[in-house]
Structure formats: C-alpha cells, structure tokens
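Quick check before the chapter quiz. The format below is the same one you will see on the exam, so make sure you can read both the input and the output lines.
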Amino acid sequence: MAKRLICPYCYENFAPRAIRFRCHSRLSRTGKQCERRRDQVLDQRKGPRRSHDLGPDFAADGRKPTAVCPDCDGETTYRICPVCHSELPVQFGMMDNRLIAMVGPKASGKTVYMTVLLHEMRNRIGEAFGAALMGSDDETMRRFSSDYEDRLYRDNQMFPGTQTASTNLNRVDPLVFRFGLRRRTLLGERPQHTVLSFFDTAGEDFNSRENVELNTRYLAGADGIVLLLDPLQMPGARDNALPGTPLPGSEGLDPPINVLSRVTNLLLARGSGRAAQKIDIPIAVVFSKMDAFWHLLDAGSPLRDHVPARDRFDVGDSLNVHEEVRRLLKDWDGVPIDHLLDNHYSRYRYFGVSALGRHPTTDARVAATGIQPYRVADPLLWLLSEFGSVPKAGRG
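Here is the expected output.
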C-alpha cells in the first residue's frame, strides 16, 4: 500500500491503517446483531452529503480487507474513509488510486464531455483495449445512468449549468469508477485495476483564487488534470467559427488563460512544483467543440483524422495532434496559454475534441444526426498511459 491514500470522495489524505470499518449489521455467528440506524454520511468540511441505513463504524487495521465488529463479533468487508465516512471502493489502497481533476471555465462543456467520455470508455474504447469501466459504488452507477447517460443518449437533452461547489445544497458527489485492463508481462497476462474519481465542477468555482482554494482542494491531490477550454471563448477563434455555431455570451465568462493561471497558482502554493522546478502533475489541455473549426483545417491535418484503431495509446498520433493545436493557438490569440504551460509544467499535452460532433439545437437538444464523438478519450488515455495503466505504442 502507499504511505498516504486520498479518498476518492472527499479528497482528504490519510494513512492506510487509518481506514475505518462499518458493521454490516447482519446476524453474526455468535447470534449477536448490531442495530441499524438511519444516519447521514458527513464530510467535516462540507456538511451532510447523503443518507443511508448504517451499522456502527469502528477502528481496525485498515490495511486489511476485513475486520471483526467489536460489538457483535460479525466480520465485515465495508471499509470507509476516516474523514467523510463514505464507503471506499473494493480493494481500495490495494490497487492504483488515480484522481483525475476535470476543470474548466463556465460553459466549456464539461458535463457533456465527461458523460460522452465515460460512455466511450465503457463501450468503444473498452472493446478496443479489452478494458472494463464500472461504477465503484451504487450511487455512481445510479447517477451516471439516470442523470447523465440516459439524459444525453436516450432523451437527447443537454444539461443545465453545474451547481457551484460553494453551495452545500444539492451538493453532488464525485463519480468514482474502477478501470480494469489485462496487461501482458513476462510472467503472462495479469489484471491491472485503477480507481478513477471524476468531480464535475462548476465554472464559477474557478472565477477567483478564493473559490479555488475553498471548493476544489481535490486539485492538490490529483494525479492528473483535464483542463477543458472552449475555443469559442477565445476572440481569435470565435470570429472564424463555422457560421451558425452558437457563441457563448461574454457576460460572466472568464478568459481561459485566467482559469489556467488560477489552477497553476493553486498547484504551486500546495507544493506541486518547487521554486526551481516545474509542476510534475500531467495536465491534458483539451479544446472542446472542435467541430466548429473543421472547415478551416487542411485535409492532411491530424485533427481531421480519427485515432488509429489499436489496443495501445498511439504516442506519435498524439504528438501530431499536440503540435497542430499549438499551431492553432497562434491563430486563436492563445500563445500566452502555451507560454504559461511551457514555463510551469513538465508534462502537458494539447488535445482537440468534439463530444457531440455537431452543436446542439436552439432548444438545448442533441442534433438530429445524433452523438458523434471525436477523439474524446484521447486525454484520459494519455493520462492513463503516463500512469502506466494503459500500454503505449510509437515514439515519445
């Protein structure tokens, strides 16, 4: 186990031994049974999060998968976070635990992108890589199906704005998934599992240094960051967008460079990069809604090609896309973004994606052509390849 673990629900860190256990409240072999009680899972910093019928929790050696309840002598496998008391994923701390922080300014399309990304990882990408993505808890499985996937794919409806993290009412927990992949080694195939935590933040959570500090502490513990930026919020890009493309209003929007600057300042303040060193957390800088700019790209542009079909992350293809986006930044008045990343991050990569393939209708519905995602999985696959969770192919 690692020396310190980070809860995928509240993002606090703790020693593996500190993990607590919760009694399952079933009749034990001795005939004793703990009384079940209606209780609330509490996050000490955010207040009540959700209610469950719970058995009592108790301290034991959290490095072990099971413990015996001191009240009823029953054995339990329910391991919980010592801070927020959320039930931890099965085998938590015994496999890779990767926190993916997904951030971006208001109206950049984070919720749509996250939904399509996870749908693709469970279906097309899962088939190509021989991988499986499943919810790590009942709440994640229920919410992702009903609140995200069904709404977008079945009902063809877009999402309302994300609730800001500064409001405790209707606070939404992260979506926590288990990513499984069989890796070939010298000793044969072996399963590799990674816990992924996604927290859908509101754009308003990044409009000031204070909000970033208060509401997104999970950035400090992130293993990788997906920064989603909307080119239509950049003056040099929006003027050349495909005619008919809905343009975001300027009121209340924060320039992408400001969001990147605040995230960078937070990481530097939390010690993610020493004074003479760059930040080593890999950051995928993802430009969304690329369907609005395909008409401007040359026929040979890597942003007009689809990812080569293979069971490995194609490094050469990714670097070609990276350089093409860097070239576009010059036309989009985005050179300051490139300079900031180059000066402060040791690992960053540009991506161009389209979650829907075409802009939604005026009544906030998916276009009649349906959802046609383009390269949405590239950023996550790059991060997973940096962690060693998926194999690489090609140069780099």
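If your answer matched, good. The CA atoms of residues 159 and 269 lie 33 Å apart.
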